[in-house]
Amino acid sequence: MRLLVVEDDRDAADYIVRAFREVGHVADQAPDGEEGLALALDRQYDVLIVDRMLPKRDGLSVIGELRAKGVETPVLILSALGQVDDRVKGLRAGGDDYLPKPYSFSELLARVEVLARRRGGREDTVYRVADLELDRLSHRVTRGEDEIVLQPREFRLLEYLMKHAGQVVTRTMLLENVWDYHFDPQTNVIDVHISRLRSKIDKGFSQPLLHTIRGAGYMIRDGAR
Questions:
Q1: 16 with 109: CB under 8 angstroms?
Q2: Which of 92, 80, 137 has its CA nearest to residue 110?
Q3: For domain 130-220, is the CATH number 3.60.140.10?
Q4: Which CATH number is 2-122 given?
Q5: pTM higher than the cut 0.85
Q6: Residue pLDDT, tens place only, 65-123
Q7: 1 near 25, Cβ under 8 Å?
Q8: How many CB atoms are located within 10 Å of the residue 213 CB?
Q9: Are 216 and 168 in contact (CB under 8 A)?
Q10: Are strands 2-6 and 47-51 parallel, antiparallel or unpaired?
């Protein structure tokens, strides 16, 4: 999943982002309501995690503005205000779920997964190309009857390629969306990960699915086509 965490407590935000990345998700963060609103309007996210009490613009105002502009991305509200009236106010403002502080990451993760699943249904969380299948929620990858074990970065790489199946994916696209680099570090990190990924999803199968498009980038497609 691609997530946005809008939280002004730097330690809390760093912890949440790091924890989501450790389980293979992509997480951006914003330290205030104005930046969070700008990111939520500019980029596509599966779920927004928004603290209620934020500088510059409070969380409920951010959610209200998003809904007014037609953005229907699910929002989970985090707040130290946990009374019934507080939760009702948050949900009526456009939030989809409300999690009072303190909370455990395991509960936060479970609630985010439910929101992502509810939004798009299973078809939006499972990518398929030929006999290769990737489940974004369970983090399970299979090809035919074989389960493929991937490291978190390999999973993110394959997820991005499968999301854009049949399209050429450039190095710049991979650096920005899989490695969160907005510059080219001039290393062979992409080549190394592509090679490892290819050996895991194509080795032993008659039809290769991961293709190098010389001078352009990479593509996942059904080799039989």
A1: no
A2: 137
A3: no
A4: 3.40.50.2300
A5: no
A6: 998 888 889 999 998 886 888 888 888 888 998 888 888 888 889 889 888 877 654 44
A7: yes
A8: 11
A9: yes
A10: parallel
